[in-house]
Amino acid sequence: MKVTLAVIGRLKESYFVEAEAEYKKRLKPFCTLAITEAKDEAALLASLPATAHLYAFDETGLSMTSVAFANDILGAEQQHGGGAPVVFAIGGADGHTDALRRRARKLIAFGKLTIAHRLVRLLAIEQLYRGFKILRGEPYHRD
């Protein structure tokens, strides 16, 4: 499965870059992960393939458990996605525009807390890893 994490901005801090690299390495047995960095949301939207199944991490979105994320998004895409590119979008400091929210299949929130977009990027990659481990029934996640 090909997964893209489409983000606004770049990681500048070396410790975030190292954490991202670690999870990208861990994800290799489960998916092909690409991370695309855009200057703004217009560029992010323009870069999306027309057939992409877009999910957006957004403060207005649905809070999900890791198991629901694994089954309802990753598992459903594996079984019924038809090979379409799967894209998870993370906005910049001001979040997403209404245009991107309308384009998304689902908006996903990490609860009601406000979280810096650089941290959401790492949380998203970790949840991808956790989700694939859940789908395979491999140890990592604990209920």
H/E topology pattern: EHEHEHEHEH
Using the coordinates shown, work out and report the CATH topology: Alpha/beta knot
In percent, how much strand structure appears in the residues? 15-25%
Poorly predicted residue ranges: none
What would the principal axes of the Cα set say about the shape?
globular
State the end-to-end CA separation.
26 Å
CATH architecture: 3-Layer(aba) Sandwich
Largest sheet: 5 strands, parallel
The helix tally amounts to 5
Rg, rounded, reads: 14 Å
Q: Which range best describes the helical content: under 10%, 10-25%, 25-40%, 40-55%, 55-70% or over 70%?
A: 40-55%
CATH superfamily: SPOUT methyltransferase, trefoil knot domain
Q: Quick check: average pLDDT? A: 94
Structure class: alpha/beta
Total strands: the figure is 5
Q: Compute the number of structural domains.
A: 1
Strand order of the largest sheet: 2-1-4-3-5
CATH class assignment? Alpha Beta
Architecture blueprint of SSEs:
Blueprint: E1 2-8, H1 14-27, E2 32-38, H2 41-47, E3 53-63, H3 66-80, E4 86-90, H4 98-103, E5 106-109, H5 117-136
Parallel strand pairs: 1-2, 1-4, 3-4, 3-5
Helix pairs in contact: 1-5, 3-5
What does this structure look like?
The chain has 143 residues and is α/β, with parallel strands linked by helices. It has one domain: SPOUT methyltransferase, trefoil knot domain (Alpha/beta knot), CATH 3.40.1280. It has helices at residues 14-27, 41-47, 66-80, 98-103, 117-136; strands spanning 2-8, 32-38, 53-63, 86-90, 106-109. A 5-stranded parallel sheet has the order 2-1-4-3-5. It is globular, with a radius of gyration of 14 Å.
